[in-house]
Amino acid sequence: MNKYLLKLFVTGQTIRSGRAITNLRRILEKELGTEYELIIIDVLERPQDAEHDKILATPTLIKEFPPPVRRVIGDLSDTKQVLMGLELLHEESRTKEE
Amino acid sequence: MDTTARTGIEKLVTNIPGLDHITIGGLPQYRTTLVSGTAGSAKTVFAAQFLAEGILKSEKHGVFVTFEEPPNDIRRNMASMGWDIETWEKEGKWIFVDASVPPGDAPVVAGSYDLGALLARIEYAIKTCKADRVSLDSLDAIFNQLPDRASVRRELFRIATTLKKIKVTAVMTAERSQEYGDISRYGVEEFVADNVIILRNVLEEEKRRRTVEVLKFRGTIHKKGEHPFTVVPGEGLIVIPLSAIELKQKSSDVRITSGNKELDVMCGGGFFRDSLVLVSGATGTGKTLITTEFIAGGLKSGERALLFAFEESREQLFRNANDFGTNFEQMEKDGKLKVVCDYPEVMGLEDHLIHMNKVIAAFKPTRIAVDSLSALERVSSVKGFREFVIGLASSIKELQIAGLFTSTTPTLLGWSSITEAHISATTDSIILLRNVEMNGGMRRALTVLKMRGSQHDKDIREFVIDGSGMHIGKPYRNVNGILSGNPVQVAPGNLI
Known about the structure:
The structure holds two protein chains of two kinds.
Chain A: E1 4-10, H1 15-32, E2 36-42, H2 47-52, E3 60-65, E4 70-73, H3 79-85, H4 88-97
Parallel strand pairs in A: 1-2
Antiparallel strand pairs in A: 1-3, 3-4
Chain B: H1 3-7, E1 11-12, H2 19-22, E2 27-28, E3 32-37, H3 43-58, E4 61-66, H4 71-79, H5 85-90, E5 94-98, E6 108-109, H6 116-129, E7 131-137, H7 140-145, H8 149-165, E8 169-175, E9 195-204, E10 207-217, E11 226-232, E12 236-239, E13 255-256, H9 261-266, E14 271-272, E15 276-281, H10 287-300, E16 305-309, H11 314-323, H12 328-333, E17 337-341, H13 349-363, E18 367-371, H14 382-398, E19 402-408, H15 418-423, E20 429-438, E21 441-451, E22 461-466, E23 469-475, E24 479-480, E25 488-489
Parallel strand pairs in B: 3-8, 3-9, 4-5, 4-7, 7-8, 15-19, 15-20, 16-17, 16-18, 18-19
Antiparallel strand pairs in B: 1-2, 9-10, 10-11, 11-12, 13-14, 20-21, 21-22, 22-23, 24-25
Helix pairs in contact in B: 13-14
């Protein structure tokens, strides 16, 4: 299976959390269609998960698969940065060159 | 103390030795105290000890948030302080929140963020081990990890506010770039802490000197100024309060013997029981003999004596004492005397003081002699030496026992030393010994310069030393300038 596996850590039902989720879904649908799995973790409900992954800032997005593991922090409003973090920008530009 | 009533801020006793004295009762409870210092100023030891003492002395649990070193490094480094963090973790008394930089690429920043996850982790750890104390070490690393300084500052403030709300007392450490300058590199103190402690590690006259200063405690009182401290393996940080004497010392009018009858007479009936006596003179003037007689006299009246010797070896000391008919070896065997010989150079003065205090506490002497104090001057800066003397004097005073310090003057015929200048104000009595060159020979002179709270003989008297000790004789009547080292004989008719 080649599905992207992503984890997004947010803090409760804040405006910033909501914005991050919306931004991310929009980007993923455009870039990956349905080829991804996204787990959203609320650090207030599951602080032990934040501990396990050593998360400091929220929102934090982790690309678990495909390797390498990459982290993106912020409300994901900067699309270009998100794509770079997920290493999607890179692939896209290469496709264009080919 | 009733400081709480006046200020409304309670203090948390840290149990870090000496710190509760200079903070007058500990750190402000349920507040965050910023501990700032240059690299190598023992910030991490402070942060870890704050938790360790809580666990060891008052069964209070702690959370250690580490931004810089991984938990494993801290476990290992702090083991040398005698703290078994790993066991405490297993017992649920200590929890690490590992906020150190994870290996791999730095995260990509895509928009605004906060430290909600870190705060959630800290709160979760506090709840899990029911912590009363939290240490965050050191804040600088988080500024290096996250580029948006303004939001990091704001978030640290939010963490401090939350900690206050859930009633934990916290220590945050931060790095400074210079010993005397801005409080911290990233200006966190403006956002985070009403309470600031500075740790310093200053190079002074080629000697390292550590000090701790309470810079501010908002809404509550503390002692001012820098206080020396040292880091002792197996124990951690020990602060040496300079003002421990306070008003505690009651002066006693009980007299004890100096060990020499004639000297007792000169002092108006002996030394006071809880007084400090300084014996100053050039080398060979009889300081070690006075020390020996002081000890022997004490033991004769059923006292316990402790001798710290920094100039001579045990063998030398014992042999000299034997020459005057005093058997130190037997006295030690009887458990009435303890002789501690150390080279001044084996450790810093702060460590000497701590070591001496330990020996005093264990042996419980009723009189203490230090021969000589000036030998210790070599291993310290002037300031450090003055602080050492005050520290030693206050420990002896607190115990209300007698102390005799000797000091070697630098010139053979003479003049006072730096030691004297620094300790004369601390001591109650001063006895000067001098070599006197007269009529082509060397003679000796003694005078009691000061005897606090008593009348005393003000003559400058000649004394001789023979196999049975020291014998004080008649005053020099026709000589001027003995004390300054320039004796001039005056014809009897010209005496004023």
